[in-house]
Amino acid sequence: MMREQAANMSSTEPILTAEMVREIQALFPRYPNKRAVTLPALHIVNDRLRYVPLKAVVEIAQLLELAPAEVQDTLSFYGLFKQDQPHGRVRAWVCRSISCALRGGEQVLEHLCHKTGIRPGETTPDGALTLEYAECLGACEFAPCMLAGESLHRELTTAKADEFLSHVRPASGAGHSSAHA
Amino acid sequence: MSSFEPVLMANMALPDSHTLRVYESTGGYQALRRAIKELTPVQVIDAVKASNLRGRGGAGFPTGLKWTFLPKDHPGPIYMCINADESEPGTFNNRYLMELDPHQVIEGIILSSYATRATTAYIYLRYEYPLSWKRLQAALDECYAAGLLGKNILGSEFSLDVYLHKGAAAYICGEETGLIESLEGKRAWPRIKPPFPAIEGLFRKPTVVNNIETVACVTQIMARGVEWFKSIGVPSDPNNPRDPGSYGPKLYCLSGHVNNPGCYEAPLGITCRQLIDEYGGGVWKGRKGKAAIPGGISMGLFTEPEFDTPLDFAGPGKVGCLGLGTAAVVVLDETVSMVDFLHNSCRFFQHESCGQCTPCREGTAWALAMLNRIRAGKGRLRDLDLLLEIGDTIGIIPGTTICGLADGAAWPIKNAIRKFRGEFEDYIKRTNPHGYAVTEPVLALPVLAGAH
Ligand SMILES: Cc1cc2nc3c(=O)[nH]c(=O)nc-3n(C[C@H](O)[C@H](O)[C@H](O)COP(=O)(O)O)c2cc1C
Ligand code: SF4
Ligand code: FES
Predict the structure, then answer these.
(1) Do B90 and A33 touch (CB under 8 A)?
(2) Relative to the CA of B367, which of B45, B112, B295, B415 has its CA 20 to 30 Å away?
(3) Host domain of residue A62
(4) What distance in Å separates the CA atoms of residue A137 and residue B128, rounded to the nearest whole number?
(5) Which residues on chain B are in Cβ contact (under 8 Å) with A74?
(6) Which residue from B255, B258, B298, B331 has its CB within 8 A of the most atoms of ligand 3, so it is best to mutate?
(7) Which ipTM was obtained for this model?
(8) Number of domains making up chain B
(9) CB-based contact A79 B256, cutoff 8 Å
(10) Which residue of chain A comes nearest to B280, CA vs CA?
């Protein structure tokens, strides 16, 4: 991984595709300055690459006429953007705030960790799933809940969590740990 | 109360309630058409002022009054920021409005922008609401196509652009100046006020920040009139000329240990017990309630006898809570440990403190560390006083921090320990029978040479 990244860093190939650049530039007229496009640009890259490596930060900074450190400063304030490696094909946010905790949210997260052999913030070795804890997802009436990609999973139980795992990681059997395989 | 008809949620059950076609079929955008044709911006402000509408985002500031703080005859641009960051634990009513009736929200944004002469509005939407994003974007597209947004709206001189701006999973972006900094592309560090956003806000220009539910209320006030709005809720206190009252309908959120969690529209001023029993079908599993968060976790706690408190802007404060907040009630049944509750709360605020002010950054971190220690069976009775010391000293109310996140962190600490002290003491004595009375520091730190 490290070596790959080093190769990435030194490569002259840009990491932002022409399409990403166009999408970012298309937002300029919406704001009186380019700096305001920082967060939208980070999202555009993150949606495609599932992370925002330093090289992308440098290229975004060039587009927005900022110092890379300014973009990096903003990026690092938010917990959303990974930088060392892409998150899994599905990124699942399990709520741990009060309404979900009162209805077993933390047990569901613990169960998912146990079944996958990863901790919150980590990705399964097959790259299928990244688990995260979340603070209130704004869906407390469905507690305990989880946002996986764009779909909200409501009133979770360990059985529903297993079913979810079997969809995201069909190869590994119904949610059996492959972390140590 | 029985005569109350939902208004903000009236259309949500209709099929395709999120489309322009359905919205217009129920009279949508008539208020805007009338306002643009017949009313001056000042007249719209006057109507909102006369309605005594108070912001639904948490602080309850009178909306019309806030708009009048904008400088007169400003050359522009004036910005409108619509706060859809909705991240206060327990709160989800903005989501209902955006997913199921986005045009009611957008009509309110257009009316509010017309009133304040804003020419650009940004909706700052939290990252975790992908369906809201889609519904709002589709609704905005419909509006542009129908001449309701863009240049010369409905053939008038008034032009407005509305853009969606996505957040990145940070609670502090809901604080209005944190939101502004985040929108500008920076870390969401709240600004010292004054200057208030109305004078110097987004891109250093005059700016109005309003919540999604607030602008939905603006739509209804302009559609149904000031008298209608003031016929609902709790009137101003006649003995207090500065009390704006608690008028209008409110979207209450109910979650936790109730039979029917959900979003319920009711007149401002129903009691917490009414919300739980009449709307939520009572505490779940036939159990008794033990406590409830009155308006998002930042507001602190009601004890069970305090469930009779009215959920209006003045009510929760009368029993030692911070305020009405977002009117999101979370019910804790009799089996819940207050130690666990407080741990959950402290963990949230430690995670979400932006780190800018030392009392908040360190206070929230130490509070969590102490709760962790107590839960690990190493608590001392003295920790309760240390926790209260943190609770009493962090926040804009004691004057030590830049924003109100720290007050929100403090209130659950103060309420939980002061209202349930016996339970905390019992827990500590039971789990740390040999050490609970120790008063020395947990770790004896060496005195730093040269520190004097
Ligand atoms: C830590 C913190 C978080 C906040 N989060 C939100 C939020 O998510 N949504 C919101 O509308 N207001 C939030 N507020 C309140 C805003 O600062 C501001 O008062 C509000 O958006 C103004 O709109 P209103 O007058 O229409 O309520 C928050 C305040 C604080 C201190
Ligand atoms: S009070 Fe806390 S969250 Fe608010 S600005 Fe200070 S450190 Fe940040
Ligand atoms: S507490 Fe989990 S969604 Fe609100």
Answers:
(1) no
(2) B295
(3) 2-77
(4) 6
(5) 185-187
(6) B255
(7) 0.95
(8) 3
(9) no
(10) A141
Is residue A179 in some structural domain? Answer: no
Domain assignment present for B378: yes
| B320 and B342, same domain (yes or no) | no
Which range marks the domain in which residue B204 is found?
20-231
Give the number of domains in chain A.
Answer: 2
Four-residue CA torsion sign, B322, B88, B295, B181: positive
Q: Could you identify the residue written with the tokens 């079997």?
A: A166
Position in ligand 1 atom list of the atom nearest CA B212: 11
Atom of ligand 1 nearest to the CA of B215: 26
Residue of A nearest to B88 (CA): A136
Task: Please tell me the distance from the alpha carbon of residue B430 to that of residue B32, in angstroms, as a whole number.
Answer: 63
Pairing of strands A129-134, A90-95: parallel
C-alpha to C-alpha distance for B134 and B50, rounded to whole angstroms: 35
What gap in Å lies between CA B88 and CA B174, rounded to an integer? 9
The tokens for B138 are 């589709």
Whether residues B64 and B183 share a domain: the answer is yes
**Distance between CA B302 and CA B294 in Å, rounded?**
7
Residue ending a domain, choose from B333, B362, B383: B333
